[in-house]
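Lay summary. Proteins are chains of building blocks that fold into shapes, and those shapes determine what they do. In this project we predict the shape from the chain. Here is one chain we studied, written as its sequence of building blocks.
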Amino acid sequence: MLEQKNKSFNSLENSPEMFSQSSLVNQYAELGYFVIRNYFTNDEISALRKVILTFHEKWKKDNETFYREEAFNSSLITGSHYLTQEERIELFNFLSAEKMMKIIDALIPVDPAFMNTQLFFNPVNPQQKDFWHRDCQYDHDIEGQKLAIQETQVLHLRVPLFDELGMELVPETHKRWDNEEEYNVRQEEKGRTSDEALSTGRKIKLSAGDLLVFSADMIHRGLYGLDRLALDVLVFDPSGDFVDYIDDDCLPERSMLNKIENPRIYINSLNLKQM
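And here is the predicted shape, written in a compact code that computers can read:
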């Protein structure tokens, strides 16, 4: 049975020429994630990297103590604090480009909405270790988490800007609860710690140009090392109650929308904020 599962996992190594939207939808429904290798061109990644590094260097200077002591990610990359309007428009255009929307629309076919962006990097503090979690555990108690994985839909679309060790995911936990080992490690119960290896984990090494799509509420962890710098866009199904998670500043101003080629996910979010 384990050998059959491993063959199924290997089928997630898609190339842009070979995948179909239906196969991706089926893979996501079954396991909670998929990878498309070399999805973005070198030019696309180079242009994105320039904007993101501009944000990152300014953010580090503004958050020096936090960065050096405990940070491993930042958020609100599309906000107005560190990027110019032109840089923000360039970033908005990348995040809602046809390549991204083709994936988003396949998984959330009705009015997908933009929530936020996050940037993941290696912590400076060598004492910090990568840790298992579900995103929903930071907002819900155990019963709420059980409900969230059955009822809500939040996508992470991860774009690595450099080659990195990637992610470790526990397949199928976007729709099932933790087994005993997973629960004790993730919740740090019975002497276990959240950085321990899980027998059910699946490591996915990522290269610049790949796209990893995974459920925010499945059990997962980032893997520190190499030149880790990965941009995540979070998109949600509007039937879920996530409007309060949207920071106004991370959305484009109405005056910017005509400069964004496909602003639909941002318009959906702006409309939800007005309801």
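What the prediction tells us: The chain has a mean pLDDT of 93.
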